[in-house]
Amino acid sequence: xxxxxxxxxxxxxxxxxxxxxxxxxxxxxxxxxxxxxxxxxxxxxxxxxxxxxxxxxxxxxxxxxxxxxxxxxxxxxxxxxxxxxxxxxxxxxxxxxxxxxxxxxxxxxxxxxxxxxxxxxxxxxxxxxxxxxxxxxxxxxxxxxxxxxxxxxxxxxxxxxxxxxxxxxxxxxxxxxxxxxxxxxxxxxxxxxxxxxxxxxxxxxxxxxxxxxxxxxxxxxxxxxxxxxxxxxxxxxxxxxxxxxxxxxxxxxxxxxxxxxxxxxxxxxxxxxxxxxxxxxxxxxxxxxxxxxxxxxxxxxxxxxxxxxxxxxxxxxxxxxxxxxxxxxxxxxxxxxxxxxxxxxx
Length: 346
Known about the structure:
This protein is α/β, with parallel strands linked by helices. The chain is built from 15 helices and 11 strands. Strands 3-2-1-4-9-6-10 form a 7-stranded mixed β-sheet. α13 crosses α14 (269-276). It is globular and about 55 Å long. It starts with a helix and ends in a 21-residue tail after the last helix.
């Protein structure tokens, strides 16, 4: 178990946090956040300042900024806040990271004030995402959480973000970064539109139905390509090329087909695979140690994949904050705990 050696010191300290913390409460966090948002989270324990080697950072159009997009909603807010905290803690130039938070319209004011109270001085903008944009395109999935409109906001980053933002790192809410995010930002995409860690050993055919593979008009889309699975929770996106190529419309086209033909079962991932698989700039697997949430049905515990780690991702049905609150954590959930700013004593 290579990860035990690599994480031994951090893992022991994280486990101590769990043992010594006050009793975790199990009331619904979304209701608590809506009724009293400020006391639910602690203020970030330190002020994150740039080192002397960092370039000066200004407004959103400053070319020296690292742009990170994350969705915010009250159900997954605890995860999003931990993700932001982890990025800031490990950034050499934290003031040079600009966050783009995508929210549903009715929660904009609540979430904006909450973020400002937790991270004073954080560079960020809030963007309203109207659920109506995709509601007519979403089909049922194997897990209800995958059907939420905000899961599809990544399809619209090129439209939502300022035109001067030509590149962005998109991150899911159920992960923590344990390395300098600027390293991921500097990834070369070459001529590609997106970059992500690829997993070519995975059974690619399982992401689509038998009907998809049996009809040439659908399966033929992969002709001449060598498609590999990639997880859309960690992507570097060239927004300039995306806008020029109209890739939002290409994704929507497959979602429209899915509504009548049922060519896949798994939410927002397959349309990305249909458009981009085989045309992805490969990124090191260290930037997405995914699957820590377990499978989509049982949410069972999993180990890390062999190799170095820069990002831990609890994709799957099990989320660390839910397992911690229920007092049934998986061992690796301890690696998420140091970034959690939730007030357990509330």
